[in-house]
Amino acid sequence: MEEKPHTSIQYERELQEIKENIIYMGALVEQVIERGIRALLKRDSQLARQVIAEDDQIDKLDVEIEGKCIKLLALRQPAAIDLRFITTAIKINGHLERIGDMAVNIAEKVLILNEEPQLKPYIDIPRMAEIARGMIKESLDAFVTENVDLANKVRREDEIVDNLNDQIFRELLTFMMEDHRNIHRAMIISQVSKNIERISDHAKGIADMVVYMITGKSVRHESFTEEETS
Amino acid sequence: MKKRLLFKIVTGYLAIVLLTVSVMGYLTAAHLKNGLTERTEGELTAFGRMMSLMSLADIQKNALSLARASHSRITLIDGTGKVVLDTDRDAVDLDNHFNRPEVREARIKGQGSSIRYSQTLRTDMIYFALALRDGDKIKGYIRLAKPLVELQAAAAKLYKMIFQTILIVLIPSMLIALVFFFRIVTPIREIEEYTRKVRENDKQAMLMIDSDDEIGSLSRNINYMVQFQQEKINQLREEKGKLEATFASMMEGIMVLNAEHKIEAFNNSMLNMIGVGFPDIIGKTPIETLRSAPLQDALDYFLETGEPVTKEISIGVDNRVILEVSISAISGLPGDERKIMMVFHDVTRLRKLERIRADFVANVTHELKTPLTAIIGFVETLQEVAMNEKQTAEQFLKKIGENAYRLNRLVNDLLILSNLETGEEKLELRNIQVGDVLKDVLPVIEGASGAKGIIIHHEIPSDLPPISADREKVIQVFLNVLDNAVKFTDSGRVSITASVVNKGCVTVNIADTGIGIPYSDIPRLGERFYRVDKTRSREPGGTGLGLSIVKHLMNAHRGRMKIESVLGGGTTVSLDFPISD
Fold this sequence. Notes:
The structure holds two protein chains of two kinds. By secondary structure, chain A is mainly alpha-helical.
């Protein structure tokens, strides 16, 4: 059955609106992560509290976008690329919402850490956060421009963040063994590091979905080495 | 096109020639035929009348000779139509002539004529009949007949002439047609060629057709039109170029959105300001390209209310860009199109300067207050209790002195900086050797370095060209930098080297193996009171103005200070001094 031009334009507009909402949410998420990390590095409790407050907006957007996607699925019965776009949108939406939560977790840890003097100068954590934030940005760039290469680049970067997380943990372990009074702070820093590592996992998840959206191929549980040799 | 036009012209000419000749021929033939017929009829009438004067018997007797004399056939018919005599045929063979047209006419009018085709002679015949009267009664008729052979011969001759005329006229007229064709078609083809080239944008000088007729004036009009259009196009192109150049070279970033709120145009400043991750942003929405939620909020507000919006947004991480964006509608577009203009103004530097100023005020009050608080505290304690305890009092006085000296140093440094900034501090430029200056500086710093066990290594080539500088100021620069190097190095060494790297200046490198500086802090080191590690308390003796003074002194010397550092791996300060002429 052929659709009337009017409905088709309306449909296009609805798809574009979902896309823009997701990017808007992505922009908010990038912002809260950047602020969360800045709050950690500058020991800025006020900024940390701001991050926690901003998560409400992300949560609201999460519900709103999901609602729009489901409405579109029900009313338009999309097929092929549109269907993949909407399922991808739902998934990316979920990932972004979780990333927002991670930023809140980090901000909460900052508030705890600021009650005590700094354990050590942060060297690897800012690097790791920078990579993770870049991954979110690039995965959304890939989503906007439908660029598979960029999405694959993001998927590769996840490993760097994983390695940094391990390295930070080992370093913190030495601090804990040195002095038992360090254990509390070291544990919390370790949790911050773990949260950043989870953020990069979600960014990889977004990139996986972008690849799926463009190629129609699910790459979620493939590791890169397998894929490249096959 | 050539063939069709040729065909049209030639057939036209042919038609005109054929039509003219045939109409003329037809008219001539008709006229000739009438004349001849009338003449023959007249002859027959005259002869018939003459014969009617003769007696019937004479006529019958002399019929043959009469016929011969008149070149005609004579028939005598009685009152009932019965043929009595015929000069050509036997009268017995002929049927009743009572109803022949000429006889009938003669019966009524006295005489009659008729032209008929004769089956026997196979030619047109003219018949003339005359009634012979006896009183009122018609006793018989004389009929004369003559073939119209003469007429036929004349007609044949005429047709032949017409045909000949056609043949003779045809060839010259065809030639004239061809000449005419080429005279008209050649310029038309030129015009056609020219206009085609103009249409295909193949630049042509001008149409050169020298003619006074309509084609000449057509070609002049075309020339004028093309020239006029070319001028208009050039004018528009020039105007567009001007606008585009203005658009491209504007400091402000500009983004134009179409009715669907997608990016339609932007300038280079825009791209430089935001540093988009992908180049092709035309047709995308601002949120897709800039990824800025506050910008989208501003745009949404504008779309909702239609009021122009001005908002400050920041983009990027640490190295953030602060942009002031103004969103407004573009009005006066053809077709009532609704476009949106976004103008971005980079206020990063402005905001940074504001922050530095605010920081400075906060810092300077803090720095001045700390020693003052100490002094006031000690003085109050002395006044209340400690005066009587000589030992404590001495200790307190010593502290008060230390803080007072520190205040003094701070105020002195601030004065130096302020003089440098206002340009009141005059430099006494002389040609000096870097090595000589260092000889005076090193003993001062060696006290502090020796206490920490830091080796100061220096390697100054003796053939270094002299620099043009104020000796006292250079000593201050070296003292400040070396003081920092020793202060932030717990163990290891500080090495001083000098060389001519860039033409025209001597570069002195002071490298330490100290704690280093985070990359992101390096650009801010020249700021007054800027501290890398804010948690650490001020080192005794430092005012927080050292590097700021160095930076200003180097600028005053038209030199440069550059700092490279690896966190945990040491810092290198490079000082470029201009060589004296």
